[in-house]
Please model this.
Amino acid sequence: MSSTTDNAAVLRGVLDEWKAAVDAHEPERVAARFTEDAIFQGLHPFTVGREGVAAYYASQPLGMTAQYRILETRRLADDLVLGYQSVEFAFTDRDPLTVNLSLLVKRLADGWYITHYQVSLLP
Model:
C-alpha cells in the first residue's frame, strides 16, 4: 500500500484539474475528470455518468471558483484512493459556500478519475 503522501499526490493531480475546469466554467472539461459511470452527488439530486456532471456544472454561476484542502486520504486498493476534502466555492455576487467533499478516485489505463463524488453541508 502507498503512503499518505502518495495518496494526497494522486488526489491533488485529479483535484487540480477539476479545480481548473470549475474555475474556467468548462463543464465538459469538469466531466472529463470523472469515470463514465461515476456516481455524482452535488447539492442537487444525484446523477450517474459524465452527462449529469456536465449538466450540474453548466448550471453553476459564471465566476464561481473552488479552493480545496485535503483533510484525509486512504488507499483502498492499488487503483482506488479515498479522499475527504474541505472545499470553498466562491461567487462574484454572494458569500462563499464551504462544503465537505468525499471522493473515490480510480486509476484507469490513462490516468486517475473520479468515480464517486459526494458533497455534504455541515453546520
